[in-house]
Amino acid sequence: MSSMETLNDSGAAYLRLVQQMHKGLAAAGRSADSAFLTAVSKTQPWEVVEPVLRAGHRRFGENRVQEARERWEPVRDDWAGLELRLIGPLQSNKAGEAVAFFDVIETVDRDKIARALADEIQRQGRRPVTYVQVNIGEEEQKAGILPAEADGFIRECRDVFGLEVEGLMCIPPVEGPRGPYFGLLRKIAERNGVGHLSMGMSDDFEAALAFGANEIRVGTAIFGVR
Ligand SMILES: *Cc1c(COP(=O)(O)O)cnc(C)c1O
Hints:
Helix 5 (111-124) links the parallel strand 4 (104-108) and strand 5 (129-134). The protein contains 9 helices and 8 strands. Strands 7-6-5-4-3-2-1-8 form an 8-stranded parallel sheet. Helix 1 crosses helix 2 (46-54). It has one domain: Alanine racemase (TIM Barrel). With 226 residues, the chain is of the alpha/beta class. The chain binds pyridoxal-5'-phosphate. Residues 40, 42, 63, 87-88, 171, 201-202, 217-221 line the site of pyridoxal-5'-phosphate.
């Protein structure tokens, strides 16, 4: 990018978001490096994704294996340091592709997926970082292990399947205050020795940061409405 060129909309929105994130962290008495941003590029056209790359961002979240591969495989080598994270539900028949492609898989939520990932990690000799997704509001339509089953599932991921479970991820209900849900995810993480909390999206990341999020996943506020 030449020095005369200005960042177009999504690039500027990205820079604003980073500032807001740092403000939120400061307000919570936290250091600027205690949380990071995953830019959720799912379904967004390349025209809005590229400016964010040009602004220097390298960490992106996608919710479908196929769509992510189509988008990123052709350009992956052009953007050094790219980190691609699966934040959408995973089918066990896509576990091989997911292990081969993603750096982080945030949506481990049942035995079948944990086993399929473990088998593929063994087979491919490639080990993406894995998080467990918790259905923190116990909503019918949402993926994730139920809070009451989280301790047992995390133990099983570790002891039976050899997955490290470095983080927990949740998407709280859209209605009402999110704080109690973020607080609950944090408690589950603490009692299981899980270090990383992936929580907070466009409309609730400030609350998530106040409750200890280490990662916020933001799409709309950067790229616009999908
Ligand atoms: C789409 C999505 C996001 C981003 O949501 P926005 O409201 O657009 O910021 C974050 N996390 C997950 C799991 C998503 O599916």
